[in-house]
Amino acid sequence: TTSAFSPVQSFTLGCAVPENLSEQCSATSTQLFWGYTNSMTYTVEWRSAGAGIWNAMPSTNSSTYFLNHAPTGPLAVGSAYEWRVVGQCSGGGSSLTSAIRSFTAGC
Q1: Dihedral of CA 65/71/74/75: which sign?
Q2: pLDDT of the residue at 11
Q3: C-beta contacts of 49-52 below 8 A and 24+ residues apart
Q4: CA gap 104, 66 in Å, rounded
Q5: Bridge partners, residue 57, by sequence
Q6: What's the confidence (pLDDT) of residue 43?
Q7: Which of 8, 26, 39, 99 has a Cα-to-Cα distance from 78 of 20 to 30 A?
Q8: What ranges in 1-107 are assigned the alpha helix state H?
């Protein structure tokens, strides 16, 4: 007999969107955290709150990232910032961008 259906094909809808974002502030840096998925790398993007352009940091295979405060880093103490994360899938492509979080540098 013949079938009107094509052969079964598998596909991937993309990798998991980074979740469980949080941050921890100290006097010298802000540490960003997110839920880790094995075999993924991540790109952290940050900007001044409300700015239009995101600053992309080098990719990491960790679930945390440090942004230093001035004078050794780009963040001005007392200023508000936003950040988000995108995952790079092990088979190519990327996840959707995480939700945006905000923080004030220097607590």
Answers
A1: positive
A2: 46
A3: 49/79, 49/80, 49/81, 49/82, 49/102, 50/82
A4: 14
A5: none
A6: 94
A7: 99
A8: none
Helix, strand or coil, per DSSP, at residue 85: strand
C-alpha triplet 85, 63, 90: angle, nearest 5°: 75
Distance (Å, whole) CA 6 – CA 9: 8
Compute CA distances 4 → 1, 7, 9, 81, whole Å.
10, 10, 15, 55
Q: Is the peptide bond before 71 cis (omega within 30 degrees of 0)?
A: yes
Q: What sign has the CA pseudo-torsion 71, 24, 102, 106?
A: negative
> pLDDT truncated to tens, each residue of the chain (107 aa)?
555 666 665 445 568 899 999 999 998 999 999 998 777 899 999 999 999 999 999 999 889 999 999 988 899 999 999 999 999 988 788 899 999 999 999 88
